[in-house]
Amino acid sequence: MGGVGWHSTGQGVERTVERTLGHLRTLDAAPAQPAGPLTLEDLYRQHRMRLVRLAVLLVDDAATAEDVVQEAFTGLHRHWSGLRDAAAAVGYLRTAVVNGSRSVLRRRKTAREYTPPHTTTARSAESLAMLTAEHQAVVAALGKLPPRQREVLVLRYYGGLSEAEIAEATGISRGTVKSTASRALDALQRIMTAG
């Protein structure tokens, strides 16, 4: 998927992010849709791992990511009768994962105010082993971005979403998506240059 030209001077870092998260997206590609009506079980089987990877990229913790995705599917189950089609169900899940990840990050921030901060990188050895050193550096740098910046880049380059879809999933305007992406790429450039 080509870059959207969010930033002219950071195109090198944009290409690097696009390569890394595009590689992960390819690894997690959803299988072909079954014939007939889509069930909740089909959605779970087809999208669970991709949503877990999305959550891991946002919250940087595999166990928490699993919990966030499980909550998203639980919410989908509660709202199943009100959804119009499979695309709406996937959009609901994506938005639920973003919102659940935000909640986790807010709780972490509150907890850090009472206890000394600690660093955890709970990505599985398996997922990191599948990445080159360059890809690992990009994923590590993404973890240092503010949550909204990380969300926008992950949804664009891992999720493969358009600006409009990112705006819908995150509840921000398209203009804010664009400016946030630009700031995120600038920050990522600084992080990767300093590291």
Written overview of the protein:
This protein has helices at 11-27, 40-59, 62-79, 86-112, 125-129, 133-142, 147-158, 163-170, 174-194. It has 195 residues and is mainly α. The protein has a single domain, classed as PhyR, sigma-like (SL) domain (Butyryl-CoA Dehydrogenase, subunit A, domain 3, Up-down Bundle), CATH 1.20.140. Residues 1-9 and 115-122 have low confidence and may be disordered. Pfam families: Sigma70_r2 (PF04542), Sigma70_r4_2 (PF08281).
Strand residue percentage: under 5%
Low-confidence stretches: 1-9, 115-122
Distance between the termini: 27 Å
Average pLDDT across residues?
Answer: 80
- Helical fraction equals over 70%
Summarize the structure.
The protein is mostly helical. It has helices at 11-27, 40-59, 62-79, 86-112, 125-129, 133-142, 147-158, 163-170, 174-194.
